[in-house]
Backbone:
């Protein structure tokens, strides 16, 4: 069981219906996480027959060349371990950047712990080691790149007069701005010597196999981990436009403004674009994503007796609007006589104006509290598959029809905590936070609406 406080959450002093719904939601979330375990995914996706590496329906002849392993992300360490179990001493060398909190082990591939979501010097050193391996690879060699969510901050290599401190400031500003991950990564690519296809350029002419665990809705390869090994369609001008759109242009360091301005004027080489020779020998394979996690959660809820509806339009946008959207959907589901579950994936954004503590899922959950008040047969859960929701130790929170009443007994009002971006304190006081710690995976967030129907449990 990934959820560390499963028992406490299940035994909270709430209605019988809410307790049953809570258990069902947490078990479904656990099923999704089990399905997305990186080692399990790679074992089911890869096999080796003599010198032929089977990747799904494709085949790659390793031949007599060397095999290098590189990559970055929250799941990349576990992926590296699974790859070593398969290839063993066929791997010549490797280096993968993973978050400091990650616990996993490998025998050949170096696991370099680095900063996330704000990059640090350890990430820079690991990135330099990765580029050394990329430069060493020759035409007959195979480089396997393990990419997963979090790779953007874990592959920092400041360029063109940009310092690590400059990148840290820009990253912090963007994370609080409400910008989408796609917009944030447009900026990151153009401040980096490794992202936006530049790692692939260093690997060429060696062959390159990308194994990708997607944390971006729709699996856009140039956005996941800022696309270090795929063509980039964005430009320096696009990066500057993002900073201006969110009112950050005047706040970022002068070195950043100079680089983006010079790049837009054609004075700095752009990131590699589609058609660049660097991508001639690249194979891309997505081994896991949010959709597969939702299918696993759906199967768990169906087995528990729910009629399940999976929404095919993932959420991308403001967290408070997400919470209100889920509340409306939940109240509509409450009219059903039989138990109903509605599942949706996505990743919300938060524009931080207050001084509290929280994350996108907790903020969205807090925005749903008042609308759900009094509905004893409803529960909404918003949970991150990487186990971390914002700069907190929770993966998200649960809300039910009793949440507002329990908060009022503690003299707490949702609006006060929303304005201060202090959702963590609100749900911590109620015991409604969900804790897993780092899961070692990352395929966006899972949102669940559960209705017990008209019958008491």
Residues:
């Amino acid at each position: 069981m990934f959820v560390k406080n499963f028992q406490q959450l299940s035994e909270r002093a709430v209605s019988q219906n809410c307790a049953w719904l809570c258990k069902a939601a947490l078990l479904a979330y656990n099923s999704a996480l089990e399905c997305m375990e990186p080692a399990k995914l790679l074992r089911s996706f890869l096999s080796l027959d003599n010198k032929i590496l089977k990747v799904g329906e494709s085949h790659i002849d390793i031949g007599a060349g060397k095999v290098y392993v590189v990559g970055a992300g929250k799941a990349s360490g576990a992926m590296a371990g699974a790859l070593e179990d398969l290839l063993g001493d066929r791997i010549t060398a490797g280096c993968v950047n993973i978050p400091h909190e990650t616990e996993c082990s490998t025998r050949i591939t170096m696991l370099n712990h680095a900063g996330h979501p704000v990059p640090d010097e350890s990430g820079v050193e690991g990135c330099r080691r990765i580029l050394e391996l990329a430069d060493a690879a020759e035409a007959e060699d195979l480089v396997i790149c393990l990419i997963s969510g979090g790779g953007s901050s874990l592959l920092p290599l400041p360029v063109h007069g940009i310092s690590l401190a400059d990148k840290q400031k820009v990253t912090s500003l963007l994370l609080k701005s409400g910008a989408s991950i796609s917009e944030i990564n447009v900026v990151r690519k153009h401040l980096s010597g490794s992202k936006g296809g530049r790692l692939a350029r260093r690997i060429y002419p060696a062959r390159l196999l990308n194994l990708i665990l997607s944390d971006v809705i729709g699996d856009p390869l140039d956005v996941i981990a800022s696309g270090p090994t795929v063509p980039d369609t964005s430009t320096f001008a696009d990066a500057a436009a993002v900073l201006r759109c969110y009112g950050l242009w005047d706040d970022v360091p002068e070195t950043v403004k100079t680089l983006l301005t010079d790049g837009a004027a054609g004075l700095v080489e752009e990131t590699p674009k589609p058609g660049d020779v660097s991508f001639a020998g690249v194979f891309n394979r997505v081994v896991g994503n949010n959709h597969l996690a939702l299918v696993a959660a759906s199967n768990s809820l169906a087995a528990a007796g729910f009629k399940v509806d999976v929404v095919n339009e993932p959420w991308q946008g403001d967290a408070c609007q997400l919470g209100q959207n889920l509340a409306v959907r939940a109240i509509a589901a409450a009219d059903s006589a039989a138990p109903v579950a509605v599942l949706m994936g996505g990743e919300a954004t938060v524009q931080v104006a207050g001084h509290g503590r929280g994350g996108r899922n907790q903020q969205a959950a807090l925005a749903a509290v008042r609308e759900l008040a009094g509905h004893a047969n409803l529960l909404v859960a918003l949970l991150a598959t990487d186990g971390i929701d914002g700069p907190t130790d929770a993966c998200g929170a649960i809300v039910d029809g009793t949440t507002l009443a329990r908060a009022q007994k503690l003299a707490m009002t949702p609006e006060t905590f929303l304005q201060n971006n202090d959702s963590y304190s609100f749900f911590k006081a109620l015991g409604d936070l969900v804790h897993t710690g780092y899961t070692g995976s990352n395929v966006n967030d899972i949102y669940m609406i559960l209705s017990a129907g008209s019958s008491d449990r």
Remarks:
- The radius of gyration is 23 Å.
- The first helix runs from residue 6 to 10.
- The longest strand covers residues 340-349.
- The chain has two domains: 6-35+291-451, 38-157+192-234+271-288.
